[in-house]
Amino acid sequence: QKEVEQNSGPLSVPEGAIASLNCTYSDRGSQSFFWYRQYSGKSPELIMFIYSNGDKEDGRFTAQLNKASQYVSLLIRDSQPSDSATYLCAVKSGDSSYKLIFGSGTRLLVRP
Amino acid sequence: DAGITQSPRHKVTETGTPVTLRCHQTENHRYMYWYRQDPGHGLRLIHYSYGVKDTDKGEVSDGYSVSRSKTEDFLLTLESATSSQTSVYFCAISENDRDYGYTFGSGTRLTVV
């Protein structure tokens, strides 16, 4: 069973702080990694993807990947109350099905 | 969500009745997926399709069937609805490549009473 693990939270940070969200995965054949944001009652929306070891920055978001440790993280700088949501880590399977395996998500609360 | 529509948005049905949910896309993407989302379980794959008439099972496929007769439509049928199938159902589409994530529909909230 291929798994993606996330701490369910909630992770509570003050406005302006850095929020750090973490994810581990079990399938060493995975090649592509995604972070989705999901507001309550809404559908998931893609915010970041990463394929190579290291960091990838997009605005206030930085994704970090360490394939040796099977670890993916998302940093949100200058956190805003509007960032309060559930963040889903997803890993694309290494086979030809291109299925995404999702973690159960981490709930982030940004306190004004 | 742009290019992908789910219907109905909400449905209440009785135990034992068949139910069909529809996903329609205008992006001409090859891959389509049905997920269910439940508290504590995240998104779990029910079935997916990799082309017209080409479908396969996901991790929670029991009690569900799918059909894809056209590129743009992917139907999910609950053959005989049970209370355990009360959930939010999301359809997703993707390019046939590792470099793309999914685009999700707005979801269908199904309640089985």
Output the keywords.
heterodimer; A: 112 residues; mainly beta; six-stranded mixed β-sheet; five-stranded antiparallel β-sheet; 0% helix; 54% strand; B: 113 residues; seven-stranded mixed β-sheet; 11 strands; 58% strand; globular
Describe this structure in words.
The complex is a heterodimer of chains A (112) and B (113). Chain A has 112 residues and is mostly beta strands. Chain A has strands spanning 4-5, 11-14, 19-25, 32-38, 45-50, 54-58, 61-66, 71-76, 85-92, 100-102, 106-111. In chain A, strands 2, 4, 5, 9, 10 and 11 form a 6-stranded mixed beta sheet that branches. In chain A, strand 9 (85-92) and strand 10 form a beta hairpin. Chain A is globular and about 45 Å long. The model of chain A has no long low-confidence stretch (mean pLDDT 92). Chain B is 0% helix and 58% strand. Chain B is built from no helices and 11 strands. The relative contact order of chain B is 0.34. Classes of the chains: A mainly beta (112), B mainly beta (113).
Task: Provide a brief overview of the structure.
The complex is a heterodimer of chains A (112) and B (113). Chain A has 112 residues and is mainly beta.
Rg value of chain A: 13 Å
**Strand segment tally of chain A:** 11
Show unreliable segments of chain B.
none
The largest sheet of chain A is:
6 strands, mixed
Give the terminus-to-terminus CA distance of chain B: 29 Å
Q: What's the Cα radius of gyration of chain B? A: 13 Å
**C-alpha termini separation of chain A:** 40 Å
| N-to-C SSE string of chain A, H for helix and E for strand | EEEEEEEEEEE
